[in-house]
């Protein structure tokens, strides 16, 4: 294998698994250490720089960082249930304890640059575009059909998960940058918007339409059957304040979990979730399913809805076919009837949460924007431009339903494109990140960070007693970590951004680092091709998705090979090394956003 080039930002970025997995590339270990030091405002601003909505995401994020967390791979005696660091809930700790951070926020531009930007929809992607561009002097106007900003974060996420005060605060930070917010105005014609001569238009209108089910009895019993997304919005606006005693929720995503938990709080006594797939294949996050079950809501899987049963125009129940999943040699799933009799489930109301669809009736098909066979705009995945270069898309409106953190990442990328486009630059030249690599050595065996490995299991976030009663749609369920518990949870972080950096010329091949390594991840060995090298290491490197760290040839012509996948970043190799060939160096990667840092210089063109 060729020697590892640590000058390539991706080399060590991929080792920081949580940051690599985050669509916004939030430097997770950096803010966790700040929380451990009680510097909550600093931790909040590290988050705000990357993901824009720390308080919102600290409660609602889909947490792609946590399955990637190294702690879940290397922790001993964790059985079949690896427990990553509670990254998402620590983010909330920073938000809850930060105090007043208004003075740390960017200020409105002192002078405009004469460029006008329109954002359609006030959801997370549009607000990210506004946050990135407004301080640069752009006049950003955000149009929203609802009276207040936030998009689906406000209208579809229940208040028992996300208090409205948090949304008000974090959308307010953005609107305070001089953004013009036009609430209560639905954009119903792209041609008309284009005629207003904005320099660029960003469409962040989400995927606002919930899928319906065209089954027998749907029209006859329509009064008791509701599309989940619309129903959640009606709950938010106070149009729905009660439900029937028996409620069936159809679907296996997070919207279904929000529907069933809301129904319990609005008077539903017998609330069930029925889903076509198996329980483990549901799209809902595992913790969302657990929360529903903790509230006494059964989830019945492998049930395919067949018909709405009604009498005299009133819904009485539904019939379902029992199925099982079969997979072909390519892993494709097919649902096969089990042959059991159809099940009947009595109910008073049904909430349909079987998916979301994009709806663009307001974009005329002769406006110059191309659409694909599925009715989605043709959008460049790097620049987020449509076939009209100054019209860009992001969030669910760009590539279909995902989540808040992806919408934020899209907003950052689109803002860079808008800024470069309006400065006459090639939008495909994307900025390199800002990277720092600094030694943490404070003495012979002292580091500027705490490298002790905590043996603690993951701490559980407590629930409020009031929320356990399930009698309030607005009482927040989770209390969040108190500072003492948060500190204990921070100690479970392995500081994966503090890298073990090897200097070939200082190594005397004494193998002291090999002897002391607790995970046997260091091997001095004859070089070879990667497929040959991985099984020959002291502990075979099985995870091919994580690169090996390979040195240049040593004096014996062996190479040092380190399996980055299971390294604890404990620093024992650096402490034991008699020549200082190993050093612990903190790697900090910050994404570059719209502005002068993204312009002028020639950057590597995006693939």
TrEMBL record:
The keyword Translocase does not apply. PANTHER family: GLUTAMATE SYNTHASE [NADPH] SMALL CHAIN, GLUTAMATE SYNTHASE [NADPH] SMALL CHAIN-RELATED. GO terms for molecular function: iron-sulfur cluster binding; metal ion binding; oxidoreductase activity. InterPro entries: 4Fe4S_Fe-S-bd, 4Fe4S_Fe_S_CS, DPD_II, FAD/NAD-bd_sf, FAD/NAD-binding_dom, Helical_ferredxn. Keywords: Iron, Iron-sulfur, Metal-binding. Residues 498-527, 557-587 form the 4Fe-4S ferredoxin-type domain. The lineage of its organism: Bacteria, Pseudomonadati, Pseudomonadota, Gammaproteobacteria, Lysobacterales. This is NADPH-dependent glutamate synthase beta subunit-like oxidoreductase. PROSITE patterns: 4FE4S_FER_1, 4FE4S_FER_2. It comes from Luteimonas cucumeris.
């Amino acid at each position: 294998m060729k020697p590892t080039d640590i000058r390539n930002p991706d080399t060590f970025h991929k080792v920081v698994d949580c940051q690599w997995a985050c669509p916004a590339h939030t430097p997770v270990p950096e803010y966790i250490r700040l929380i451990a030091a009680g510097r909550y405002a600093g931790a909040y601003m590290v988050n705000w720089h990357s993901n824009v909505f720390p308080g919102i995401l600290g409660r609602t994020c889909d947490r792609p960082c946590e399955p990637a967390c190294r702690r879940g791979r290397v922790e001993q005696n964790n059985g079949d249930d690896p427990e990553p660091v509670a990254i998402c809930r620590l983010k909330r700790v920073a938000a809850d304890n930060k105090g007043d951070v208004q003075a740390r926020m960017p200020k409105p531009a002192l002078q405009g640059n004469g460029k006008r930007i329109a954002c359609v929809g006030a959801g997370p992607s549009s607000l990210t575009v506004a946050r990135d561009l407004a301080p640069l002097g752009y006049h950003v106007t955000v149009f929203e059909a609802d009276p207040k900003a936030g998009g689906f974060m406000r209208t579809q996420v229940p208040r028992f998960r996300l208090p409205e005060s948090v949304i008000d605060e974090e959308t307010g930070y953005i609107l305070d940058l001089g953004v013009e917010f036009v609430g209560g105005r639905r954009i119903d014609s792209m041609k008309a918007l284009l005629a207003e001569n904005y320099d660029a238009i960003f469409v962040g209108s989400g995927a606002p339409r919930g899928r319906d089910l065209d089954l027998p009895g749907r029209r006859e019993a329509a009064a008791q059957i509701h599309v989940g997304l619309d129903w959640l919005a009606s709950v938010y606006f106070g149009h729905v304040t009660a439900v029937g005693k028996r409620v069936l929720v159809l679907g296996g995503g997070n919207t279904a979990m929000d529907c069933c938990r809301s129904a319990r709080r609005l008077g539903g006594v017998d609330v069930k979730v029925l889903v076509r797939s198996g329980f483990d294949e549901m799209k809902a996050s595992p913790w969302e399913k657990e929360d529903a079950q903790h509230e006494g809501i059964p989830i019945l899987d492998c049930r395919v809805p067949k018909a709405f049963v009604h009498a005299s125009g009133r819904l009485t129940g539904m019939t379902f076919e029992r199925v099982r999943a079969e997979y072909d040699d390519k892993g494709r799933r097919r649902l096969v009837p089990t042959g059991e009799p159809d099940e009947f489930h009595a109910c008073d109301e049904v909430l349909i949460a079987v998916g979301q669809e994009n709806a663009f009736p307001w974009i005329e098909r002769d406006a110059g924007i191309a659409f694909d066979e599925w009715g989605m705009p043709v959008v460049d995945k790097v620049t987020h431009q449509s076939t009209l270069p100054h019209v860009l898309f992001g969030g669910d409106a760009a590539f279909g339903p995902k989540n808040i953190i992806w919408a934020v990442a899209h907003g950052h990328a689109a803002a860079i494109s808008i800024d470069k486009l309006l400065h006459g630059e090639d939008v495909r030249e994307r900025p390199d990140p800002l990277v720092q690599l600094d030694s943490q050595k404070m003495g012979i065996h002292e580091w500027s960070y705490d490298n002790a490995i905590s043996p603690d299991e993951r701490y559980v976030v407590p629930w409020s007693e009031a929320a356990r009663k399930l009698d309030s749609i607005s009482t927040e369920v989770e209390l969040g970590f108190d500072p003492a518990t948060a500190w204990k949870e921070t100690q479970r972080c392995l500081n994966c951004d503090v890298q073990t950096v090897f200097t070939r010329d200082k190594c005397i091949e004494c193998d002291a680092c090999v002897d002391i390594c607790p995970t046997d991840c260091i091997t001095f060995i004859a070089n070879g091709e990667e497929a040959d090298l991985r099984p020959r290491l002291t502990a075979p490197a099985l995870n091919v998705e994580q690169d090996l760290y390979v040195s240049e040839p040593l004096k014996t012509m062996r190479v040092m090979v380190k399996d980055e996948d299971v390294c604890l970043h404990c620093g024992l190799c650096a402490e034991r090394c008699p020549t200082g060939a190993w050093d612990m160096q903190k790697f900090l990667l910050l994404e570059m956003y719209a502005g002068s840092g993204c312009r002028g210089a020639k950057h590597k063109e995006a693939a």
